């Protein structure tokens, strides 16, 4: 399996490391042609406005939209989740959205950088996966929050009563950074590795 990791800004190197630990090959995606022969895609955390501008400058928006619409596995973490959401409630007017995963999301909903925290996330066994019922170490850095979930959206992870990992079709979004831990379960689930 070959996994593309959007490498314009953010925590892409940490995602590359996780994917390689799972035994898959990676491609750092910086131009549209880099998506030509990948089987799955990760859109990492970082700063959503900066990522949005980088995507526009690189001419990748339509290629990314087509890839996500193809039904291939996609994982969006933190800023990646913001860009993959149908609606960003407090984004900039010129910020692009890659696709319409049927959620509304709010940037920095858990607070500013100094409010970042780590907490155990309860993963849900969806039946399609065999996720052990061990808490997942969630790293929340200026984390967004899902404020609306569409009818076809399935919750994959909870922080108390807050949905922090969701799936719709072949796309998995997390409001936290699974790549900043040694736990590879979410990457394995989202990418089918």
Topology of this protein?
Blueprint (H helix, E strand, L loop, with lengths): L1 E5 L5 H10 L3 E5 L10 E4 L4 H11 L2 H9 L4 E4 L1 H6 E4 L12 E6 L10 E7 L12 E5 L4 E5 L4 E6 L2 E7 L2 E4 L10 H7 L2
Parallel strand pairs: 1-2, 1-3, 3-4, 4-12, 5-6
Antiparallel strand pairs: 6-9, 7-8, 7-10, 10-11, 11-12
Brief overview:
With 193 residues, the chain is of the alpha/beta class. It has helices at residues 12-21, 48-58, 61-69, 79-84, 185-191; strands at residues 2-6, 25-29, 40-43, 74-77, 85-88, 101-106, 117-123, 136-140, 145-149, 154-159, 162-168, 171-174.
Outline the structure in words:
By secondary structure, the chain is an alpha/beta fold. The chain has one domain (2-191): Rossmann fold (3-Layer(aba) Sandwich), CATH 3.40.50.880. It is 22% helix and 32% strand. The protein is built from 5 helices and 12 strands. Strands 2-1-3-4-12-11-10-7-8 form a 9-stranded mixed β-sheet. A hairpin with a 2-residue loop joins strand 11 and strand 12 (171-174). The longest helix is centred in the first third of the chain and has 11 residues, at 48-58. The termini are close together. The model has no long low-confidence stretch (mean pLDDT 91).
CATH topology: Rossmann fold
Query: What is the CATH level 1 assignment?
Result: Alpha Beta
How many helices? The count is 5
- Give the biggest beta sheet: 9 strands, mixed
Estimate the helix proportion, in percent.
10-25%
The strand order across the widest sheet is: 2-1-3-4-12-11-10-7-8
CATH level-two architecture: 3-Layer(aba) Sandwich
As residue ranges, the low-confidence spans are none
Q: State Rg.
A: 15 Å
In terms of DSSP E residues, the strand content is 25-35%
Query: What is the chain-wise order of helices and strands?
Result: EHEEHHEHEEEEEEEEH
Helix/strand structural class: alpha/beta
Shape: globular
How many independent structural domains? 1
Report how far apart the termini are.
Answer: 8 Å
What's the total number of strands? 12
What value does the average pLDDT take? 91
